[in-house]
Specification:
This protein is 65% helix and 2% strand. By secondary structure, the protein is mainly alpha-helical. A hairpin with a 2-residue loop joins strand 1 and strand 2. Helix 2 crosses helix 8, helix 5 runs antiparallel to helix 6 and helix 9 packs antiparallel against helix 10.
Length: 196
């Protein structure tokens, strides 16, 4: 919690401010709580660890990636390595790329961001925590926990994704949901109370 709060304070101290602070707090606390609930239903996973990963997955958003021209996944990755938390560093990167073999045009990030991520991911061994945080990250839109369908509608509206990007994002997200539904043996939406 102290590291999480320091990231928020850092963002506040920047010249561009932090206009989305309430949303950021809701999102990261929400991802943490959802990950903890799901992990509690899987014997090989630790709920507290899942919570911490969820809380800090967007630590890189202590900067405004567009204004500072740096991918938030890279910022989080590098800062967590400096702090001595390589497992959290990995989550900061993998939550955006749950499939390391993504297509070049799947994301609208600048080429140098994509090239850096692809190089780092090539040597990364994913765990269920990587997949869990990537899944839970897809369940929050603004200050609301929502279905994947509703989240993707929000992402498409915000970033103007192409039809191909939308379809790939939807398929990737639903695959994550089905993976955890199967691991738990029931619908993760029911466990989390998602009705839409």
């Amino acid at each position: 919690m102290e590291i999480w709060e320091k990231g928020i304070q850092y963002r506040r101290s920047r010249s561009y401010g932090f206009t989305e602070e309430d949303e950021y707090r809701f999102h990261t606390l929400g991802v943490a709580g959802a990950a903890e609930k799901i992990a509690a239903h899987i014997g090989a996973m630790n709920g507290e660890k899942a919570y911490i990963f969820g809380l800090l997955h967007d630590y890189g958003k202590r900067i405004n990636e567009r204004k500072e021209n740096k991918f938030h996944g890279r910022e989080g990755y590098e800062q967590m390595l400096i702090l001595g938390y390589p497992d959290i560093a990995q989550i900061c990167l993998t939550h955006t790329f749950p499939d390391k073999h993504f297509k070049d045009d799947q994301y609208d990030y600048p080429k140098e961001w994509i090239d850096w991520a692809r190089k780092k991911l090539a040597e990364t061994v994913y765990t269920d925590y990587d997949f869990l945080i990537a899944f839970c990250d897809k369940l929050f839109e603004a200050c609301e926990m929502v279905s994947i369908e509703k989240r993707i509608r929000g992402i498409v509206e915000r970033y103007g994704l192409s039809e191909m990007q939308r379809e790939l994002l939807y398929e990737e997200s639903m695959n994550l949901k089905q993976y955890f539904d199967a691991k738990i043996g029931e619908d993760t939406y029911r466990i989390l109370g998602i009705k839409d």
